Amino acid sequence: MAKEVMVVKRDILFEDSDFQGLISIEKRDYLQIILDNYEYVLRDDKLEANTELKQIIPYVVIINPKTKKVFGYKRFKKMPGLHEMRLHDRFSIGLGGHIDREEEKVDVISDAAMRELAEEVRMVIYPRPKVVGFVNDELDSVGSVHFGVVAIAETEEEVTKTEGDEVRDEKFYSIEEVDDLFSKGVEMDGWTRICWPFIKKHLLTL
What is the domain count for the chain? Predict the structure, then answer.
């Protein structure tokens, strides 16, 4: 059964300015615009083609501040049953998902980011992700209907994906290892390509 998911009208979200790529929360805070103007729309094929609505997606990146590493993984190619066929066989450093209506809470975006962690990975203690920026990719068919709220979750624990057999190469990667994947032309999800320079810079400051 299709669910209703959080969206914001494009002309409201970008009323003052728009951007391509990633923008830090210090430069532009879109959180309040989202919280003041979001609505819920049925997630169906019509919505996935509607560029006038931006579907709001928490995109959580897990880092280990002690080792300066980032958690990454790769989904198996075209495995049956996976919910997002467009992300198959691509390396990713992010955990993302739609915000459903039933998740309506006091801090809806922060709580949705916490839900992503709980659903996507196994940890002993789940740290609350901190929003650090926003990602918008108008050059990609998927990105053109989505808007990412990028958040960082810090942990020194072991982390594993809950999907098990649906992913591989899950581990914490050093900056050098991720850069090497890029240099070798490994396929990445779009937001990983956009977010990595920002995340790399953040890791180098730790």
Answer: 1
